[in-house]
Amino acid sequence: MSTERMPNPAMLIPGAMEALMDVNKAIAATGLDGKLLALTHLRASQINGCGPCVAGGAGQARRNGASAEQVDTVAAWRETPWFNDSERAALALTEAVTRLADNADPVPDQVWDMAAKHFDHKELAALLLNIAITNTFNRINAPTRQQAGKW
């Protein structure tokens, strides 16, 4: 197991963690389904290899009503029957936004259109902000090797 390289950077800069948490509060205040937010957080964190966020996202998903099958198979959501169409659209958008540099067309129209079919602009805004803040946390935690369970 690798060891932490430094304390969490957001904890070292006064006000940084509070600002990040305020974004999370704003996202939650939109009313977008907490299970959906947790599943997208979990999926982005899996892609980015962020141990603390994977652990946190799995727990958050369970607390918000995700089934054990959903938590266990979110990385293989395309090949399982446990996700509805709106969850699939959100997970596809999550993967595209998290992997922006991997494709010439980072968020293809097909992915965007499917998400827009299931979510209005406010919900899409909340979903995109959730993906972005998750990626922010992942990009703070992974390079500094923050450890799951060490809060």
UniProtKB/TrEMBL annotation:
Stored Pfam families: CMD
Domain Carboxymuconolactone decarboxylase-like: 14-95
GO terms, molecular function: peroxiredoxin activity
Superkingdom of source: Bacteria
InterPro entries: AhpD-like, AhpD_core, CMD-like
Protein name: Carboxymuconolactone decarboxylase-like domain-containing protein
